[in-house]
Amino acid sequence: MINDTLHFLCKELNTYLQQELKLSEDAVVVSPIINSDGSTIGATEKKLVITLINIGSPASLRNMELPGKVMGIRAPASSILINILLSANFDAHVYGQGLNMLSAAMLYLQQNQLFHLPAKEPDSNGTRFTVEMNNLTTEVTSQLWTGLGARYLPSVNYTIRTIL
Fold first, then answer.
1. What is the model's pTM?
2. Mean pLDDT score of the chain, rounded to an integer?
């Protein structure tokens, strides 16, 4: 489900950016920023890169016990939070182009926060998910890029919430 969700979002962004910016090829890829050995990934050059940062479960909707009452609300088993980074991997000579692409992608995700990933199986409804921008402090952003083992790129952090 995680891979399908990220690639679906990538496809949606590519379709939008190709139409909006009159691009002839895909501008967005799902990939780590760098390889595990620290080397660069050629396929991410001059692209917006969607990178998986973290996976978690919603903090709300868990079983809670209140005095005199028991609430049985529980998050569905497949309801997850997927934290991603959308980065502009552009060299100095096309840096402005990368910022324009990142801005256009951010605008699209602000205007289209709910997505529906079609079901692979006929008896399923598929997965709906939202994409929400996170505000990270400079310190947290620095720690994130240090943890990735990469040099900073212009980027924005999003949380994808699956909805069943």
1. 0.86
2. 88
